[in-house]
Amino acid sequence: MKMTMTKIARAACLAGVMAAAGVVSAEVLMNGAGATFPNPMYSKWFDQYHKLHPEIQINYQSIGSGGGIKQITEGTVDFGASDGPMNDEQIKQFKEKRGTNILHFPTVLGADVPAYNVPGVATDLNFTPEALAGIFLGKITKWNDPELVKANPKAKLPGNDIVVVHRSDGSGTTYVWVDFLSKVSPEWKTKVGTATSVNWPVGLGGKGNEGVAGQIRQIPNSIGYIELVYAVQNKISYGRVRNPSGSFVKADLASVTAAAAGAAKAMPDDFRVSITNAPGKTAYPIATFTWLLIPDKIQDGAKKKVLIDFLHWMLGQGQMSVEALDYAQLPKQVVAKELKAITKIQ
Amino acid sequence: MATPVAELPAAPSVRRAGSFFWGLHGGDKPAFLITISCAAAIVLVTCLLVYELFVNSAVSRHKFGWDFLFSRVWDPVAGQFGALPFVYGTVVTSALALVIAVPLGVGAAIFLSELAPPRVSDTLTFLVELLAAVPSVIFGLLAVFVLVPFLKQIEPVLRSVLGWLPTFQGPFYGFSLFAAGVILAIMVLPFIISISREVLLAVPTDQREAALALGATKWESTWQVVVPFARKGITGSIFLALARALGETMAVTMVIGNDPKISASLFAPGYSIAAIIANEFTEATGDLYTSSLIELGLVLFALTILINGIARLLILTTTRRGET
Amino acid sequence: MDRLLIRRKAVNAVMLGLTGLCALIAVGVLVFIVGYLFYSGGSSLNWNFFTKLPTPVGESGGGMANAILGSAKVLLLASLIGVPIGFLGGVYLAEFGGTTFPFVVRYMTDLLNGVPSIVIGIFAFTLIVLPQKHFSTLAGGMALGLMMIPISLRSTEEFLRAVPVSMREGAMALGATKTRAIVTVVVPAAMQGIVTGIMLNLARVAGETAPLLFTSFGNRFWSPGWGQPTATLPVMIFTYAIAPYEDWHRQAWSAGFVLLSLVFAVNVIARLALSRGGHQRR
Fold first, then answer.
1. For A143-162, b where at least 16 C-beta lie within 10 A, e where not — what string?
2. How far apart are CA A291 and CA A61, in angstroms?
3. I need a labelling partner for A26 at 20 to 30 A (CA). Which of A19, A61, B12, C95 fits?
C-alpha cells in the first residue's frame, strides 16, 4: 500500500509539474503490442529493464502478431512485435501510412509445439507432417486414425474424436504453424495458405497462446499449437514432429537452435526469414525467430534512445535469461548483424 | 433502468417555453441555450457514430455489396469476408437464450406480481434487479469455469432426451453455441422478470376482480385476463432482452468457441458478430479486413436498433392502455 | 360439473405451483452465481491484490493495483463527460422542450442507448485513438462516458417530470424566472432521484469491458496522466480468465469479487436511498 501511495503521489506530482512548467520529465513511457508467442519473455525483459532503469516503463500488451503489425502501422504503439515477418504488402502499407520504413529485429528463437490433452496417453506422441496436416484439415478425426497409430505403435490411442483448437486472433504462432503445414502439405497450401489469420477448416478458436493453452487444458481429446513455453509452464503434453531428415524431434533448446543454424549463416539484411522445415538431422521443424517491429524514423528523441538502449541490452544481457523460459538464444552471427542494423534507426 | 417511460401530459411550463420572449427573462435564454446545446450534442454524437461506421466500412461495402450479408466465407488470407456465420451465431444464441429465459422469466414474473405477498415480491424483485447489474465479463468468468464444466457433465442427459433432434448432435466440447445461449439466457432473465412484472402490475385490479367474480380460478383470471391484457408489454420486455442478447460481447466471446462455421447442431462451436469484433478488431491487418469488421459492427447496430424500436413501441402502447 | 371444477382447481394449483417454481429457479440460479463468485473470489483475495503490480507472464504473485486505479480514473472521466451532458440534456427535455426537436433528441438517445458496447468501442477507436495515435485513459473514459449519456439523460428527465407542476408555478408566482425556478426549486426537489440514477448508471458502466479493449487497452505498469494506456479491472478479468495459469485464474476471481462488490454496494445504497426518498415514481 505504501508503494501504491508513493507511486500515485509521484505520478500526481509529475503530472502537476509537467503541466505547470512544461518541463519534460526524465521518465519515459513506451508502449508496444503484438505477439503472444514471446510474451512470457518480453514481459520478463521489460520487468527486468524497469528494475534496472526505474524511470523507463515499457508496456507490452500481447494482442497477437496481427495486432502488432496493425497497431504499428496505425502508429498507435511505439513498437510492434510479430513472429510472422510482415509481408511485402504489409510493408508497402506501412510505408504509405507512416512515410517511413519498418525494421525487423529478431529477439529470440521459439518453437510451436503440437500440444494435446488425451486422457490415458502418458507418452510423448509422434506426429508426422501428414498427420498434423490431416488433423488440421479435418481429414483425420479420430485419435486412433491409422496415420497416428503407425507413428505411435506403443501408445494406447483412444477412439475418441479429435478436438482441434486454433487461434481466433491474428497470430504469428499461427503463421509459423501454417507456414510449416503449407511446406509439407500441397493441399493445405492451396486450400488454406499462410498468414497470421486463416480460414480454418475445423476447430475451436482461442484468443492468444494463453487462450489456446487454456482450452487445451479444459477440453479432453484436444490438440492445438502453442509456443513451447506455454506447454512447459502449464504442464501440457506435447509431441515430437518428424523433420525432413525423417527423425522425430522434440522441441527443445538444442533442436530449435539447430533449426536456425542454416538461417544464421545466410541471414538476409531485413531479417525476414522462415526456418520451418529446416534441414538437419536434429533440427526441430516448426521453429521460428520472433521479431520486434520498429520504424526506422522515430521523432521522439527520448523514446528513440530508450529503444536503442533496450535493443543493445536485449542482445547482450537479455539473451542470458531466455533459456530459463525455454526459448533459444539468437545465434552469434545474427546478434552481430543486428547490432549493425540498430544504426538504421534514425 | 430500462423501465418504460410513460409519456406524461405536457406541463404548462413546456408550452410556455415556446414563447420566445419568455426565454429572454433573467438568464433564461442562456440556460435554454446551454441545455439545448447539450441535447443537440447527443443528436450530433449519435449521427457521428452512424456516419463513422458507414464511412469506415466503405471499402468492404463497395467490394462485397449486399453479398456481404449472405456470404459464409471468412478468409483473411484470400481477402474474402462474409457476415453470414456471425449473423447466424448471433441470432441462434440469442434465440436459444429466449427459448430458455422467456418461460422462466414470464412464469417468475407472474408469480411475483400475482401470487407472492408484496413483501416477498419486493425483496425477490430487488434481488433480481440487483443481478441485472452484474457485469458481462463476470458472467463470462462464471461461464468458463462453472457453466462449461457443468454442461459437459449434463451432456449425456441432454443427448438421451433430445439427441434425436438435429440440434443436439455431434461432439460436444463445452465451448459451443449452446453454452453461449445458456449464459445469455441467465443474463437476460433479470430484464424479462423485472419488466414483465411491472407490466403485469400495471394491469388494473378491476380486471382481475371481474374475472374472479365470474367464478374464475386464480390461474384462469391470470392466464386468460391479466396476461392477455399485458401481452404487448411482455412481448416488449422480450424484445428488449433480445436486443441486449444480440449485442452482448464478453460472456459470449469467452464460451462460444470462436469458429465461423454454420452448423445445425447447438453443440458445435460458433461465432457471434460482437465476439469477432472483440477478437479481431485490434489485429485486423489491411483496410479491407478492418472495414469488413466495421461493417459487421454496422450490421449489429442495425439489428439492435430494429429490435429495440419494436420493443419500445410495444411497451409504450401497453402502458398507455394500462393507464386509461 | 363437479369433475370439471376439480379439474379447474387442479390446473389452478399446478400452474400456480409452476410459476412459483419458475421464480425459484430464476432467483436460485442467479443467487447461486453470485454466491459462487463471492465464495471463490473472496477466498482467493489477499492484500497483494490491492497493492502490487501484475507480475510477468507465468510468474505467480502480484496484484492489480494499477487496474483498480485505472478503472477509477476511467470512470471519473466517464462521469465528467456523461453526467453533465446527460443531465443538461434531460433538463432541456423536461423543462424547455418544444415538440419536434425533443422528439428527435429522445429518439437519438434511444438509438445511442441501444448501440452495442462493442460498437461504441469501434467508434471511440476511430474517433480518438487513431487521430491521437495513442491508446489512452482518455479514450476509455470517452467511450464509457458516451455510454452513460442516454441513461443519465432519461433518468434526469423522468425525475424532473415527477416534480409537481405546482412547485414550478409556485416559484414563478413569487417572481422567480424560469431558470431560477429550475435551479432553486425543481432540480433540488428531484436531486435525490437524479443522483441515484447517476450512481446506478456508473455502476453499470463500471463493468463494461468491450469498449475498453481498444481504447484504454492495457498496461502492466502504472499509467500516469491521461494520455497513456491503462489497465482496468474488467479487461484484466477477461485476459486473466482466458489464460492458462492457475494463479491468474485466482486473481481473475478476486478481481471479479472486487468489481462485483463495488457494483452491488452502489446499487444497494442507491436503491435504498431511492425507496426512502419522497419522489418515487412508482
1. bebebbeebbeebebeebeb
2. 15
3. A61
Residue ending a domain, choose from B56, B79, B105: B56
- Contact across the interface for B258 and A206, Cβ inside 8 Å: yes
Is A116:A239 a contact under the CB 8 Å cutoff? Answer: yes
Superfamily, domain C47-281? MetI-like (1.10.3720.10)
Domain extent for B282 = 65-323
Domain co-membership, B31 together with B79: no
Cell of A119: 486422457
Write the residue in C217, C220, C242 that is nearest to A207 by C-beta. C242
In-domain check, residue B4: no
Domains of chain A: 26-109+287-344 (3.40.190.10), 111-265 (3.40.190.10)
Question: Rounded to a whole number, what is the distance in Å from the CA of A255 to chain C's nearest CA?
Answer: 24
Ramachandran quadrant class, C58 (left: phi over 0; alpha: psi -120 to 50; beta: rest): left
The CATH number given to whatever domain includes residue B71 is 1.10.3720.10
Which residues, at least 6 apart from A233, have a Cβ–Cβ distance to it below 8 Å? A40, C58, C244, C245
Give the H/E segment covering residue A109.
strand A102-117
Burial code of C118-146, b = ≥16 C-beta within 10 A, e = fewer?
A: bbbbbbbbbbbbeeeebbbbbbbbbbbbb
Q: Do B211 and B218 touch, CB atoms closer than 8 A?
A: no
Record: contact A205-B279, CB cut-off 8 A:
yes
H helices, E strands: number in chain C: 13, 0
Instruction: List chain C domain ranges.
Output: 2-44, 47-281
Whether residue C1 is predicted with pLDDT greater than 80 in this model: the reply is no
For the residues A152-165, what does the mean pLDDT come to? 90
**Which chains are adjacent to chain A, needing at least 3 Cβ pairs under 8 Å?**
B, C
Supply the pLDDT for residue A272.
92
B39 and B69 co-located in one domain: no
Average pLDDT of C99-118?
87
For residue C94, the tally of other CB atoms under 10 A from its CB is: 27
Q: A–C: how many Cβ contacts below 8 A?
A: 98
Instruction: Please calculate the CA angle A162-A168-A171 and round it to the nearest 5 degrees.
Output: 110
The values of phi and psi at residue A77, to 5°, are -130, 165
| ipTM of this predicted structure | 0.84
Q: Which residues of chain B make contact with A207, given a CB cutoff of 8 A? A: 253, 258, 279
Measured distance CA(A231)–CA(A128) in Å, rounded: 20
| Predicted pLDDT at B320 | 58
Q: Do C15 and B223 touch (CB under 8 A)?
A: yes
Nearest to B264 by CA among B130, B165, B167: B167
pLDDT given for residue C277 in this prediction: 55
**Residue B130 and residue B156 in one domain:** yes
Cell reading at A117: 490433452
Of C92, C149, C241, the CB nearest to B144: C241
- Identify any residues that bridge with A60 across adjacent strands, giving them in sequence order: A32
Comparing A64 with B35, the larger pLDDT belongs to B35
* Same domain membership, residue B73 and residue B52: no
A34 touches chain C (CB under 8 A): no
Output the CA angle A5-A8-A9, nearest 5 degrees: 80
Instruction: State residue B257's pLDDT score.
Output: 86
DSSP state of C96: I
Phi/psi at B32 (5° precision): -60, -45
Euclidean distance between CA atoms C97 and C112, whole angstroms: 20
Q: In sequence order, what are the beta bridge partners of A112?
A: A227
Tell me the per-residue pLDDT of C49-59, one tens digit each, with 9 for 90 and over. Answer: 898 888 887 77
Tell me if B6 is assigned to some domain.
no
Give the mean pLDDT of chain B: 84
* CB–CB contact A208 C129 (8 Å): no
Choose from B73, B173, B276 for mutation: most chain A CBs within 10 A. Answer: B173
